């Protein structure tokens, strides 16, 4: 019995776990949602009913019902329904999920168990399809239509293409597959050469939307194959015209076709379009082409009776053709420089010119010729320069004032351009300045002079450490009233350019004016390297070399010097860019400082490497004074020493000669007999006069001078001295 009682709860739990699975309720609970599909953001109501007798394990005890929206707990109300059921109602005021699952749960054994589920979807009504267009394929005569679906409705949507003909009964033409926005109506549903209505219908649970109706004859939107260009040739008598011939596509010979031709040269930014060409003609002429220029031609066609919605064929494969050449026309822009060539009476001329534009070159220019006189009928003048370049250096007599320049190609030579070698002594301009026109261009502005100007010549050269010359860096402004010009050739950012402007007057050339400019600036590539020029206890003078112009990347606006020690804050000073040295004052003696320099332009700054320096203890003048004082002292000592060595009297005064007692006669004399007297010592505590017991009188030998010794005595060994005691009175 005990084992049976223990097994019953386990079987009940197992049966309830098998019952409460996600997929269904097995009659234990029912969940209703009204509605299952709602507009996004609208309210949703739900109800969950639990029948106790159908849920094993829930027959006894109170049933607590709760709700979960996906994994989020939501609150609902609960009441007792008829027949012993438990009912819970839930209202979601704003359902903002495109889809979610709503679970009905009961509390059993301390956990929430899901006993019912309902799926809710939300979205929008379908969007109106837009931009419907159709093309008829002449291969199988199927009508392929495409459109734009619009915004996503977040709901399953059924899209069909519908069409109707003269019967006025709409049929489903086709249904797109795989979520695409195109499909093809088969030939059996089409009525060729008759008007049909075609539209797209999109339907979901919240509504239906239809596109604008397209009214077309399927043949009007037939996609024709492109024509084929057969030949292109120039018309000799009309030198700027060409003739084209083509064949229409196979299968379109019976149709009336409208065609278009387009062409362009390699340097043209856009195509030139020729319309209104009749396709059946097979040939056409077109004028206005440049000489000696390669063009690329293409052609396309469509039915002439087609509406504006008709589709053009694809462009035909391209065909290239180069028009025939003609002798160059127009004048060449020329500029010169001249200087005497030594004592021989010659003039060295550097002549430069601009290549003619394509419209004036009339083909490929083969070269240029410079002569001293114009070409006359029947004879050619001598040539002083014949080159394929756009510059030439030559020598002419000093009296030469005119040369003649011409260009030639395979078809002939241009009329000569007269170049007058004028002197440059006219009135200069004023107010020349240049500003950036872009990353690779410069605008040049100037003030118009009082005298009338025929033209202006602008020259520009890139400033580099190694001088160079750009022969093509110039341009001529033909408008004498102009006060601005745009330079675009050969301009690079972060590079400095010298710009010169010459006014051309009648009979003379003005003195040039100059300026410098950058099209774009940035911070210098690096800062100068500092060098220590001089240092003292309170001042340090620094110097640096100016940056190479290629490294400046702009106009240097200032240099900034920074210095600091371990016990002071960073100090700085701004230096004019024209200077290359700076003296730091107010430094402390015997102190280590770190110094660096910063170079600045209008677009940024760059710091240099650090320089370490240590101030001295004394200034140079103080060191010089110290060394001078020590030198004077040393010289004085040397002078005194020399004087002492040379002057005997001064030596006697300062260091008198003292006799040596050991060499005196008294020191060598020994008495014959000295009676021994008892040594009497006065007591330390008995002051009184000292008593002399014996006085010995020494007498010299007669005839012996003082200080002279007997040779015999001098030769005799000296007698040992006898000890004696000298007593001095306490006084």
UniProtKB/TrEMBL annotation:
Stretch forming the signal peptide: 1-29
Name the record gives this protein: CSF3R factor
Bias (Low complexity): 712-721
Membrane topology recorded in Swiss-Prot or TrEMBL: Single-pass type I membrane protein
SUPFAM superfamilies associated with the record: Fibronectin type III, Immunoglobulin
Protein family per UniProt: Belongs to the type I cytokine receptor family. Type 2 subfamily.
Pfam families: fn3 (PF00041), Lep_receptor_Ig (PF06328)
Ranges for domain Fibronectin type-III: 328-427, 428-523, 524-620
């Amino acid at each position: 019995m005990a084992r049976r009682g223990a097994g019953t709860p386990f079987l009940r739990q197992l049966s309830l776990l098998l019952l409460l699975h996600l997929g269904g309720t097995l009659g234990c609970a029912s969940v209703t949602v009204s509605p299952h599909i709602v507009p996004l953001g609208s309210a949703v109501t739900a109800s969950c009913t639990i029948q106790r007798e159908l849920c094993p394990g829930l027959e006894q005890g109170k049933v607590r019902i709760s709700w979960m929206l996906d994994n989020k707990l939501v609150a609902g109300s609960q009441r007792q329904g008829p027949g012993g059921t438990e009912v819970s109602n839930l209202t979601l005021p704003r359902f903002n999920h495109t889809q979610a699952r709503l679970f009905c749960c009961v509390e059993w054994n301390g956990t929430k168990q899901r006993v019912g589920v309902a799926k809710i979807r939300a979205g929008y009504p379908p969007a109106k399809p837009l931009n419907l267009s159709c093309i008829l394929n002449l291969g199988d005569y199927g009508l392929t239509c495409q459109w734009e679906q619009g915004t996503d409705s977040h709901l399953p949507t059924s899209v069909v293409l519908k069409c109707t003909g003269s019967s006025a009964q709409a049929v489903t033409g086709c249904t797109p597959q795989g979520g695409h926005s195109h499909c093809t109506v088969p030939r059996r549903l089409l009525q060729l050469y008759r008007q049909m209505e075609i539209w797209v219908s999109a339907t979901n649970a919240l509504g239906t939307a239809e596109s604008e109706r397209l009214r077309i004859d399927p043949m009007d939107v037939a996609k024709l194959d492109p024509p084929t260009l057969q030949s292109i040739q120039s018309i000799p008598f009309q030198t700027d015209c060409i003739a084209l011939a083509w064949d229409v596509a196979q299968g379109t010979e019976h149709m009336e076709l409208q065609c278009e031709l387009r062409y362009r040269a390699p340097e043209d930014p856009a195509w030139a379009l020729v319309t209104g060409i009749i396709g059946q003609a097979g040939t056409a002429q077109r004028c206005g082409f440049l000489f000696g220029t390669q063009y690329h031609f293409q052609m396309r066609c469509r039915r002439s009776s087609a509406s504006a919605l008709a589709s053009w064929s694809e462009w035909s494969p391209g065909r290239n053709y180069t028009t025939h050449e003609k002798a160059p026309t127009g004048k060449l822009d020329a500029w010169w420089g001249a200087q005497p060539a030594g004592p021989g009476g010659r003039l060295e001329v550097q002549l430069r010119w601009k290549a003619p534009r394509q419209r004036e070159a009339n083909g490929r220019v083969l070269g240029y010729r410079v002569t001293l006189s114009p070409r006359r009928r029947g004879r050619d003048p001598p040539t002083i320069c014949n080159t394929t370049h756009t510059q030439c250096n030559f020598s002419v007599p000093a009296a030469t004032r005119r040369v003649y320049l011409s260009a030639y190609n395979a078809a002939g030579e241009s009329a000569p351009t007269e170049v007058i070698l004028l002197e440059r002594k006219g009135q200069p301009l004023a107010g020349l300045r240049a500003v950036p026109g872009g990353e690779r261009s410069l605008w040049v502005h100037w003030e118009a002079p009082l005298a009338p100007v025929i033209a202006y010549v602008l020259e520009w050269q890139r400033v580099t450490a190694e001088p160079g010359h750009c022969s093509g860096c110039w341009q001529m402004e033909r408008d004498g009233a102009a006060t601005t010009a745009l330079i675009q050739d050969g301009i690079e950012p972060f590079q400095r350019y010298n710009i010169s402007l010459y006014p051309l007057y009648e009979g003379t050339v003005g003195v040039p004016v100059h300026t410098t400019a950058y099209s774009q600036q940035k911070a210098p590539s690096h800062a100068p390297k500092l060098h220590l020029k001089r240092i003292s206890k309170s001042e340090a003078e620094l110097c640096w070399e100016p940056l190479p112009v290629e490294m400046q990347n702009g106009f240097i606006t200032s240099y900034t010097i920074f210095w600091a020690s371990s016990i002071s804050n960073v100090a700085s000073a701004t230096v004019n860019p024209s200077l290359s040295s700076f003296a730091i004052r107010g430094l402390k003696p015997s102190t280590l400082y770190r110094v660096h320099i910063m170079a600045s332009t209008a677009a940024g700054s760059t710091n240099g490497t650090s320089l370490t320096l240590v101030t001295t203890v004394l200034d140079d003048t103080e060191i010089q004074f110290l060394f001078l004082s020590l030198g004077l002292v040393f010289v004085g000592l040397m002078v005194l020493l020399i004087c002492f060595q040379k002057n005997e009297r001064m030596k006697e005064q300062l260091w008198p000669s003292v006799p040596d007692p050991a060499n005196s006669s008294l020191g060598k004399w020994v008495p014959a007999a000295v009676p021994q007297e008892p040594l009497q010592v006065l007591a330390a505590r008995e002051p009184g006069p000292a008593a002399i017991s014996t006085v010995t009188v020494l007498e010299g030998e007669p005839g012996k001078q003082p200080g002279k010794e007997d040779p015999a005595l001098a030769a005799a060994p000296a007698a040992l001295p006898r000890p004696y005691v000298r007593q001095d009175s306490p006084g």
